[in-house]
UniProtKB/TrEMBL annotation, chain A:
<keyword id="KW-0472">Membrane</keyword>
<feature type="transmembrane region" description="Helical">
    <location>
        <begin position="172"/>
        <end position="191"/>
    </location>
</feature>
<feature type="domain" description="ABC transmembrane type-1">
    <location>
        <begin position="131"/>
        <end position="311"/>
    </location>
</feature>
<feature type="transmembrane region" description="Helical">
    <location>
        <begin position="197"/>
        <end position="215"/>
    </location>
</feature>
<dbReference type="InterPro" id="IPR035906">
    <property type="entry name" value="MetI-like_sf"/>
</dbReference>
<feature type="transmembrane region" description="Helical">
    <location>
        <begin position="21"/>
        <end position="45"/>
    </location>
</feature>
<comment type="similarity">
    <text>Belongs to the binding-protein-dependent transport system permease family.</text>
</comment>
<protein>
    <submittedName>
        <fullName>ABC transporter permease</fullName>
    </submittedName>
</protein>
<keyword id="KW-1003">Cell membrane</keyword>
<keyword id="KW-0812">Transmembrane</keyword>
<dbReference type="Pfam" id="PF00528">
    <property type="entry name" value="BPD_transp_1"/>
</dbReference>
<feature type="transmembrane region" description="Helical">
    <location>
        <begin position="293"/>
        <end position="315"/>
    </location>
</feature>
<dbReference type="InterPro" id="IPR000515">
    <property type="entry name" value="MetI-like"/>
</dbReference>
<keyword id="KW-0813">Transport</keyword>
<feature type="transmembrane region" description="Helical">
    <location>
        <begin position="137"/>
        <end position="160"/>
    </location>
</feature>
<feature type="transmembrane region" description="Helical">
    <location>
        <begin position="257"/>
        <end position="281"/>
    </location>
</feature>
<keyword id="KW-1133">Transmembrane helix</keyword>
Length: 325, 302
């Protein structure tokens, strides 16, 4: 046991299987535990009171939330006026958290009920339709970014001339925040999906070119030289040596970049007519259904995590020659 | 006045005769008046200065010299991977410009294509030079047989040991039927036992096919064991010190390593190469170590 813990504290040491599982579980369980503590133990936070009986306070309503301070002040006022006030005359309440911090079980329930609750108006989408719409926007934006970003990146990583032509401008452009192009995108592309896809594209494309170029440049030069001495020349080399050589790393880059694309989703979906999961979140926040808001946010995280795990799994099969995962 | 060469007494008439016959063969690789500099912070640093050397058909040449003297650079120049400012390199009287299939190269670091199986690696050059996949495959399998890797034809390089990787690298280069095989410290990453095995393999292959080998190494024993002639370079700038005929009969046997002529050649080469290598004053460093007091249960190791 002691050995196990000492391996936890030594730099860059491989852990045993149990430790790995333990720590992975803890990585999720610790934040959840914290959330549970804050939600279910009244002594940690609970800055508000949920009124169970308003007593003599005229503006208290049963079931509404008031700050603890306000509750105390009103209670003390009554006690000052009538020191022998009965329980019925005094306001009663239980400590609770603000409405924007729902408890874990509420969010878990919402994960399910959010899908089964019909939309408020008949022309509004169900949750699964919203999610599907979001995924489509991401997929298209990422597809266009890959279609142009990967070839340009490989060119820039292969030829110095292409690097000097492509990279300086890209380097400049990637500092421009993608959301800043929102209004422009709407003016040019309309209010529906096109400007949203454009924002995802702008957010990922420029990074992609630079990252792919850097990855391509990392290809072992000995492989290129070996292919030269074997008679591989010119443009053939891109297809025969460079592309297959960087493919596993390229795949890993795409996984990371896909994660970034998700971070642009919320801004993208606010542009033009609000849509997708963002529309659902803003709508639910307006109705103060914060359990649904949390559920939706968690869903984004889960979709991202699961996609990445699936891609990682496929990566192992696609590139059997690649050792360092 | 000419003094006798220190190794002259080992040159038996037989060996002398063989060496003379080598020099009468047509030249295979010819380097003349070669200069090469690299730019360092705007200054040009001369790495190779006026190199003249000729290797003859089916000769086995080894290149030794202190580290940094430009051995790798020389091999890369011959391979066409570097450009040079002055001089001529020709293979079979054809001037070299850029890489070409007449020169194969085996690198020090493993340079097999990791995404291709052993078979596909060997086929690579054949297909690039216009052979059809089917005949390339048949030919590749023959080469793989030759080095005893049939069982690994469909393995990926990462599944092979270091020695096996270099065997594949050698046949990958040889499959293209080059005139000259350039090898840059190909066995330096192997353990001594495997290295000896690979050296024997290489001599066996060399014996059986029409190839001139230009083999770079920093291991003097390896050079003596393999070479007909050894090209000794010195550093700053890289220049030819001597082209040494190895006074050992062929075929080389394993006990060659212990023979008197072998040890004499090694001692002589050491004197050539090591007089070059900068001697750090270890004596001074060691006396400082002595000043560090040792508190130990074992006060004296002698
Ligand atoms: N591409 C390069 N750019 C600049 N200097 C180089 C380059 N390649 C080699 N050199 C320099 O040339 C010298 C000879 O290098 P190298 O041929 O690798 O020596 P060796 O193989 O004999 O150890 C070294 O001083 C090295 O720093
Ligand atoms: Mg070297």
């Amino acid at each position: 046991m002691n050995e196990r813990f000492s391996s936890w504290a030594s730099p860059r040491t491989e852990l045993d299987k149990t430790s790995k599982r333990l720590l992975t579980a803890a990585s999720f369980l610790l934040p959840i535990l914290l959330w549970c503590l804050v939600s279910y133990s009244p002594y940690i936070w609970h800055p508000q009171m949920e009124i169970t009986s308003p007593g003599q306070v005229s503006y208290f309503r049963e079931g509404s939330l008031v700050d603890r301070e306000v509750f105390e002040i009103e209670r003390n006022k009554i006690l000052e006026k009538t020191p022998e006030a009965t329980v019925e005359q005094l306001p009663q309440g239980i400590p609770s958290n603000p409405v924007y911090l729902p408890a874990p079980h509420e969010v878990m329930t919402a994960m399910y009920t959010a899908f089964t609750t019909p939309p408020k108006r008949s022309n509004e989408p169900w949750l699964h339709e919203s999610l599907l719409h979001s995924i489509q926007v991401i997929a298209w934006g990422f597809f266009w970014a890959m279609l142009f970003g990967v070839p340009l990146g490989i060119l820039a990583g292969t030829y110095s001339s292409a690097s000097y032509l492509i990279e300086p401008f890209t380097e400049f452009f990637r500092y421009l925040p993608a959301p800043a192009f929102g209004a422009l995108a709407v003016a040019v592309l309309g209010i529906y999906d096109a400007p949203k896809i454009a924002i995802i594209f702008i957010g990922t494309f420029f990074q992609m070119v630079l990252i792919v170029a850097a990855t391509t440049r990392k290809l072992n030069i000995a492989l290129i030289e070996a292919s030269l001495t074997l008679g591989c020349k010119g443009r053939r080399m891109i297809g025969k040596v460079i592309l297959p050589g960087v493919l596993p790393d390229l795949y890993r880059d795409m996984r990371i970049l896909l994660g970034w694309a998700w971070t642009y989703l919320i801004v993208a979906e606010l542009i033009g007519t609000s849509s997708g999961i963002t529309w659902f979140i803003t709508q639910q926040a307006r109705y103060k259904n914060f359990d649904n808001v949390f559920a939706a946010i968690l869903m984004i995280g889960l979709i991202g995590l699961i996609t990445d795990m699936i891609l990682a799994h496929f990566g192992k099969r696609l590139f059997p020659w690649h050792q360092n995962k | 006045m000419t003094t006798e060469h220190p190794l002259a007494k080992w040159n038996t008439p037989e060996i002398e005769d063989r060496n003379q016959r080598i020099l009468q063969r047509p030249p295979s690789l010819k380097i003349s008046g070669m200069h090469k500099s690299f730019g360092h912070d705007g200054k040009m640093v001369k790495v190779l200065n006026d190199i003249d050397f000729t290797a003859y058909k089916r000769e086995f040449v080894c290149v030794v010299g202190p580290s940094g003297c430009g051995k790798s650079t020389l091999a890369r120049l011959i391979a066409g991977l570097e450009t040079y400012e002055e001089g001529v390199i020709s293979i079979n009287d054809e001037v070299v410009s850029g890489p070409g299939p007449d020169r194969g190269m085996v690198f020090q670091s493993y340079s097999l294509f990791p995404w291709l199986t052993v078979k596909k690696n060997v086929m690579f050059g054949l297909v690039e030079n216009g052979m059809s996949e089917i005949s390339a495959e048949a030919e590749a399998l023959q080469w793989i047989d030759l080095v005893g890797l049939e069982r690994f034809a469909n393995s990926y390089p990462h599944q092979l040991s270091g020695g096996m990787k270099q065997r594949v690298a050698i046949i990958r280069a040889l499959a293209n039927k080059p005139k000259v095989l350039l090898m840059d410290e190909p066995f330096s990453a192997l353990d001594p036992k495997n290295r000896l095995k690979m050296q024997k393999y290489l001599l066996e292959i060399w014996k059986n096919i029409d190839i001139t080998i230009f083999f770079i190494t920093h291991d003097l024993e390896e050079a003596i064991y393999l070479a007909d002639r050894i090209l000794v370079l010195k550093a700053h700038p890289g220049e030819v010190v001597e082209t040494l005929n190895v006074p050992l009969p062929r075929p080389r046997k394993e006990d060659t390593f212990l023979s008197e002529e072998f040890l004499a050649t090694k001692a002589y080469l050491e004197s050539l190469v090591h007089s070059e290598e900068e001697e750090v004053d270890m004596e001074e460093k060691l006396s400082m170590v002595r000043m560090v007091s040792v508190k130990s249960d074992v006060p004296d190791i002698f």
